[in-house]
Amino acid sequence: MTAVTLTRARGVIRARLDAPERRNAITPLLLDNLHAALDAAEADTGCRVLVLSASGDDFCAGTDLSGGVPDTLPAPGDTGELPYWRLLERLTATPVVTVALVDGHAHAGGVGLAAACDLVIAGPRARFRLTEALVGLVPAMAWPFVARRTGEQRAFTATLLAEDLDAAAAHACGLADEATDDAEGTLRRTLVHLSRVDRSTTGALKTWRTRLFPRDEHLGADAAHTFLTRLTDPHVHRLLGRVTTPERAA
């Protein structure tokens, strides 16, 4: 069973989120599959680029909460970094160039998934929306990666208003690097440009960027605790209970 389909071409691994019936929502299986895709890209010394794309109308609908929410916080020893946070960190730090091809709806954690990538290409069907506040949640894990692109205040406003950003608006605020009517064509041209930069150079660039703009080493654990604390709030339970779509995601 898989939620992600991998294909390989010269120097490129493409990880396609392939659970459209679940709106490509973030599940433990999807996270495991994406971590495995990164493992494969990093183990293949000839791989320069990992492309994330998706089947169906949704790039990623955020965290799947259709199974309900926890009533209590995990034990203290279990409140470290979560697999979602580790994935975003890996997408940012890996020596492989990471590209998100978004040509569908990216909601909540799906926005963070795209924002963590080195390059974001927004196709004609792309919509970006941070929806967590509508159900009483805080996008604690996605925010650092969104704000890195848009700036702190722009990320706050987009969350507070649950703004629905099309490709042009996402490009204007820095959330997307390209807004295009031809997503696949733009991806092909981007891959040609990326073929001119070797993997060791990409790794050095990313290492230096991390040195220039370091993140608090405790931020991942704090973000997880913030998100989980909100999930256990009775008010959030009530708000989530009003969501009537078959797959609740945040």
UniProtKB/TrEMBL annotation:
SUPFAM superfamilies: ClpP/crotonase. It holds the Pfam family ECH_1. CDD domains: crotonase-like. InterPro entries: ClpP/crotonase-like_dom_sf, Enoyl-CoA_hydra/iso, Enoyl-CoA_Hydratase/Isomerase. It comes from the Bacteria. Belongs to the enoyl-CoA hydratase/isomerase family. This is Enoyl-CoA hydratase/isomerase family protein. It comes from Streptomyces kurssanovii.
